[in-house]
Amino acid sequence: MTTRLTIDPVTRLEGHGRIDIFLNDQGRVENAYFQIPELRGFEQFCVGRMAEEMPVITNRICGVCPEAHHLAATKALDGVFGAEPTSVAKKLRETLYMAFFVTDHTTHFYALGGPDFIVGPDAPPSERNILGVARKVGLEVAGEVIACRKRNHEIISFLGGKSIHPVAGVPGGWSRAITPEERAQIEDTARKNIEFARFSLDIFEKIVLKNPVYREMVTSDTYLHRTYSMGTVDADNRTNFYDGMIRVVDPEGNEFVKYNPSAYGEHIAERVEAWTYLKYPYLKKVGWKGLTDGMESGVYTATPLSRLNVSEGMATPLANAEYQRMYETFGCKKVTADRYQPIHHRLATHWARLIELLYASERMLELALDPELTSPETRNIPDPARFTGEGVGSVEAPRGTLTHHYVTNERGVLTKVNMIVGTTNNYAPISMSIKRAAEKLITTAAPEEAILNRIEMAFRLYDPCFSCATHFLPGKMPLTVSLRDSRGELLREMRRKG
Amino acid sequence: MRGEGTVIIGMGNPQLSDDGVGIVVARAVGERLKQRMHLTVTELHTGGIRLMEAMAGFNRAVVVDAMVSGAAPGTLHRFDPEDFITTKNTFSSHDTDFATAYELGRMAGVHLPEQFSFWGIEAREFDLFGEKLTDEVAAAVSGAVDHIVAQMVEWEGTA
C-alpha cells in the first residue's frame, strides 16, 4: 500500500495540473508524477486546412514561443513543397531566431531561474522574483532587462512582419528582405546583446559560483540524473538552434545516434500512461524502463544543458570559452578534442542557458555582419514538380527540440499533423527531478516552505512552457500539498497562494 | 516619459474557443469608440511582462480577458487592480504575474498608466481548439461591450 502526496497548483482560474508524490509504508518517496491535461483537438483543428496556414496557426499555440513554432512550421512547409530556401532566407530566419532566444533566455534567467539563486532558494516567494533580483543586483538591472526585450522585439517585429506572431515564413524562404538600415540596427542590437550576456554571466559568477553555499547546491546531487542528452548540431557537431542534425549522447558522453530530424519516428517513441494525458517521449532503441536514468533507460533530456552536452564546443569564441569553463568547473574530462563528459547536475542548466544567451548574441552579430543579409533573393518559389506532400520541421526551442510533422494530400490540404513540443521531451526528467527534491525533503520532515521551494526549483530549471501543451501554470504558482496515509486520510496540508 | 491616450488590450488565444473572447470584445469596443476618443486596440496572447510592455506609454489601460472562475459562462466580472491575476491570461507562465511586471516597469522607468480596469468574461470552453465562441459566451459579448464602453466614456468625462 502506498501513501499519496498531492501537490496541487490550485490556481483560482484552473485547477488541472498537479503533482502526485507516492510514499511507501516506510514514508519514503516511491514515485512522483506530473499530471497535466493537454489542450484538445489540435489535429482536428488543422486537418483539412491548407498546409501554408500552419506557420500562422501554430505560432498561436503558445504565447511564449511563437517564433519557434513559426520557424518549425515554415521548415516543415519547405519539405511539403520541396522548396529549398535561399541562402539569405535561412540567415534571416536564423537572425529572427537569435533575437528570440536572447529575449527568452534573458527573461527566464531574470524572472524565473535566477531568483532562486540570486535572491536565495529559501527566500519567501514575495521576494524570490525579478524585483528581488533587481534589489539585490542593482535597480539598473530592471532597465537592462526591459531594454534587452525591447530592442530584440523590434528586430523580431520588422523581420517577422508583425510584433508578436511572425508571419514572414513561407515555403522556400522569407517574405521580405531587409534594408541596410535594418541590418545596422541588427548589428547594434547584437553588440548590446553580447555585452548584456557577459554582464549576466558575470552576475552568475559573482553571486552563484563564488558563494560556497550556492556553488555546492549547483554541484550537489539533489537534481542529478544520468540520462541521455539531445540537441541539434551543425556540420561541425556544434550547437545550432535553427538547423542541423539531431545528436544524442549516452550518459557517459558517447555518441549514441545522429539523425536527420525527419527520421524522428525511427528514434523517438512516446509512452502513454493511463493516469495522465501526457505522453513521455523516450529513445526507441533503448526502450522505456520507467521514470529512471542510466544507460538502460530510454529517458533523454533536451535542454540548454543537454544541447551543450552533445556539442563539440560552441561555434562562437566567447561562448566557447564559457563552455569550457563550465565543464572544467565540474571536473569533466574530455571525451573528444572539444567535448567533455556530460554534466548531469540539472541546476547547471541555468549556467548553460546563459552560455546559450551569449552564443545567440554572438551568432546574431555574425549574421548581421554577413554581406549577404541584405540580399533581395529571399525566396525560391516552390516548383509544383517538386511538391512532396510531407515535411518535418525541427528547431531547438529554448526549452527543447521542437518538431512539426505535416502530411498533405496532392492539393496541399493537411491530412495529418504531429508535433513534439520542447517541454514534452523533458516530462520524464522533470518528474524525476521532482521526485528527487521530494526524497531529500520529505524524509527529513522539512518545513513546508522548503518543500514547495525545492519542487518549484526542480521544474523551473527546465524552463517548462506548458501553454502549448497544457494549461498548467508553473512559476509563481499557488500550491497545495496534501500528505495522505495509505488509507487516503489527510495527514498534513500545506498551502501557498501564488 | 509622458504617456498619452488609452489602450484596450484584448487577451487570449482566438484559436482556443472562448479563450479568445477578450479579443472579440476589445475589437468591438474599439469600433464603438474610435470616433470618440484616442484609443489603441491591442491583442495579446500572454500576460506578465508582455502585458506591462503593451501598456507602456499610455495614460489609461483597459484589459479584457477570458476567465474560468466557476461562474455561469458569459458572466462579466470587473476587477480592482489588486485582483489582477485572477483573469486567465494576465499571468505568464514564463515570467511573472502582472502586478510584479508592473512594479518592474516602474523600477525601469517605463511610463505606465495609473488608471486601469480589468474585465473578465467567464469562458465555457477554453482548452479546445476552435475559432468560434460557445453560444452562451457569444451572447454575452454585446452586453460586455456596453459595460466597458460606458466605463470608458465615464473616464473620458472625468479627464
Could you characterize the architecture of this molecule?
The complex is a heterodimer of chains A (about 500) and B (about 160). Chain A has about 500 residues and is of the alpha+beta class. Among the domains of chain A are: about 5-35 and about 445-495, no CATH class; about 225-345, no CATH class. In chain A, about 40% of the residues lie in helices and about 20% in strands. Chain A has 15 helices and 16 strands. Chain A has a five-stranded antiparallel beta sheet. Chain A has a four-stranded mixed beta sheet with strand order 8-7-6-11. The longest helix of chain A has about 30 residues, at about 85-120. Chain A starts with a strand and ends with a strand. Mean pLDDT of chain A is about 85; it is low at about 5-15 and about 470-480. With about 160 residues, chain B is an alpha/beta fold. Chain B has one domain (about 5-160): 3-Layer(aba) Sandwich (Rossmann fold), CATH 3.40.50. Chain B contains four helices and five strands. Chain B has helices at about 20-35, 50-55, 100-105, 135-159; strands spanning about 5-10, 40-45, 60-65, 75-80, 115-120. In chain B, strands 2-1-3-5-4 form a five-stranded mixed beta sheet, with helices on both faces. In chain B, β1, α1 (about 20-35) and β2 (about 40-45) form a beta-alpha-beta unit. Chain B is globular.
Key terms:
heterodimer, A: alpha+beta, five-stranded antiparallel β-sheet, four-stranded mixed β-sheet, B: alpha/beta, Rossmann fold, five-stranded mixed β-sheet, 4 helices, 5 strands
